[in-house]
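[agent] plan:
  1. take the single chain provided in the ticket
  2. run structure prediction with default settings
  3. attach structure tokens to the ticket
  4. add a short note for the reviewer (M.T.)
[agent] executing step 1
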Amino acid sequence: MTKRNWQALVLVAIILAISIYLVLPGTTRLLNKPIKTVLGLDLVGGVQALLEADLPEASVTAENMSTARQIVENRVNGLGVSDAVVQQAGNTRILVEMPGESDPQVVLSTLKQTGLLEFVDFSQVDPNTAVSLVGAAIQTDFGQTSEQVSSATGPVYHTVLTGAELADAGVTVSQTGSYEVTLSFKGDGVTKFADYTTNNVGNILAIVLDKRVISAPSIQVPITDGAAVIQGTFTYDEANALAVQLRYGSLPIPLKIVESRTVGPTLGEDSLQKSLRAGAIGFAIVFLFMAIYYRVAGLIAIVGIIFYALVDFAIFRFVPVTLTLAGVAGFLLSTGSALDANILIFERFKEELRAGRNVTQAFALAFQRAWPSIRDSNIATLITCLVLYIFGSQF
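[agent] step 2 finished; step 3 output follows
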């Protein structure tokens, strides 16, 4: 063997060793990066939702949709949903897939809310009345013209500051063991909050989310450090959902759920097992054909395909790539169809042998003359993949 061939063999051996290590079930980390097989919604069960802008399409800009998609993704991640997929679908829709989720109600309500937070002046409201307003919808003067305010039905309350001046939100446990939502302000919000609380000790500053009162605390002392707490009868999930809405900002456009479905984990597991069983049967038939028809060359091709499958799956685990049912089918199909190059070379090799050439000459000519067909078919596949990648999320 030439020096170049030895170098290629060593490189192949290194790639093979790394791939085997990555696909081993016990491998969880490499180079401080987590290694795992990520299965999609249709394989492990979960919730899929299609959100749509609740506005005429002409008034929805590409920038608004891009921002909304990012905020929805941040909210999903903040809720602790692992391996979720959030992507824009068309001009006005966002597709959300949350593997492993069984109760979609809390998650979906968190995703679609606009999250407009207002701190509203209730200094003129009786404390008993303020308590009765918790959970009720009210009119505020944020974002309204004087004409809109004067024509609104019922009292209109003054907005002191909004969630745009919020720096962060989180969940903590009070001394009594109840869950609270902590808030911290930024920029002018710190000054506004400090001035208002200093001048209104003993009064009520209502916390309003999407025009609905969620808390009506009284101001006990001036709050000058830009920090506040939302108290209420929260469960942890409710407090965390509220904190996520506030932490990741308001959606630039309102969203509505136009379609949602729940996939059970049993159905997903059954689909995966059937796909793997079908793939194993298909591979067994192909391997048997190659071994019988092409003999030693066929066995070499089988080894090459196994190597290809190991490297492919190792990349899936390292990236990681989310494997859906269609993805598993595509992986099995691409692995099996990779034999077409071997078949082209082998058939050409047999023709060259019949023409009287020796083995070395026949193999060199077989590869040389089969290469254009192999190259063109793979280029066509890559072009198809590029088209699907660019336009797949738009239609």
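[agent] step 4 note for reviewer: The longest strand covers residues 255-263.
[agent] ticket updated
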